[in-house]
Write a structure and sequence with these properties.
- This protein is an alpha+beta fold and 281 residues long.
- The chain has three helices and 14 strands.
- The protein is rod-shaped.
- The N and C termini lie far apart (106 Å).
């Protein structure tokens, strides 16, 4: 009986020891797992003020750059000297063929500066032989030289196109000879009439012009275009027989609006194919 009690006590003690050993091993496992836990990084609010300030400034600059790129506009990177355009006005000869009793033959030269400014020189020969509807005289203007100088401004210089839409100013001048022929004078009292002429006179005239210009590239360096012009006479000489009806390069004495239609060829300077669009910030 005693042996049985001793066995029970021994078994009980070993069981308690085993349980205590298991508890110790479980506690050790928990401590090891806690030691291996990943440490959370320090929040940005815990950074030094210098680093925080740099991060804020970088974010602001990134925002400005993004907005600037979104609003950027491509412009045409044109050279200083883009070319030399030679033009000829074909409207006056066509109008002469249709019956106009005055007209001119005109050529022009334009220098392309940055595809924005176009200094212009225009020269031509004007003539007239005008008889009014009542046929009581004929105004003659001998073929005379005239010239204009001015500047065109291209509004669409930054769209990458070789075409042109703009405005221009001109100053023109001429010296010409004129007279009246076949002047019919009648005398009702004597019931008679005579036909006479005036001697040839020389006059100088100068004027200003405002032009609206449109020019389109039709093939490579070939262009066609038109211009509407408002002409304002500054001064013109006259004689005892009256003011000249027609002024070479200006048109009829009353002035006002005029129209030209030109064809032209551009002599390029350099290789425009190497030009690139840039971004204007």
């Amino acid at each position: 009986m005693k042996k049985l009690c001793d066995s029970i006590i021994m078994w009980h003690n070993k069981t308690i020891q085993f349980i205590l050993l298991c508890v110790a091993l479980w506690s050790l496992a928990i401590v090891s797992a806690s030691a291996q836990r990943v440490v959370t990084p320090v929040e940005s609010n815990d950074l030094p003020m210098e680093i925080i300030a740099k991060q804020i400034e970088k974010a602001r600059l990134d925002t400005i750059t993004a907005d600037t790129v979104a609003d950027a506009k491509p412009i045409h990177n044109a050279p200083l000297l883009g070319g030399l355009l030679i033009t000829a006005d074909i409207s006056a000869p066509v109008m002469n063929l249709l019956g106009t009793q005055y007209g001119s033959y005109e050529v022009g030269v334009e220098l392309d500066l940055y595809h924005r400014f176009f200094p212009v020189i225009e020269v031509g020969v004007g003539t007239a032989q005008y008889t009014p509807t009542n046929n009581n005289y004929t105004f003659n203007c001998a073929p005379s030289l005239y010239g204009r100088v001015g500047l065109n401004y291209n509004f669409f210089y930054n769209n990458g196109s070789e075409s042109f839409v703009g405005v221009g100013l001109r100053y023109g001048l001429t010296s010409f000879k004129y007279n009246w022929d076949n002047i019919s004078l009648s005398d009702s009292y004597w019931d008679s009439s005579i036909v006479t002429s005036t001697p040839q006179e020389t006059a100088f005239a100068h004027w200003g012009e405002i032009a609206v210009v449109l020019r389109v590239q039709i093939y490579k360096n070939f262009y066609m275009g038109w211009s509407g012009r408002y002409r304002l006479l500054i001064d013109c000489g006259s004689s005892q027989y009256g003011k000249p009806y027609y002024i070479p390069g200006f048109g009829p004495q009353e002035g006002g609006f005029g129209f030209t239609y030109t064809v032209g060829y551009n002599i390029p300077f350099g290789n425009k194919e190497q030009e690139k669009d840039i971004v204007e910030l």
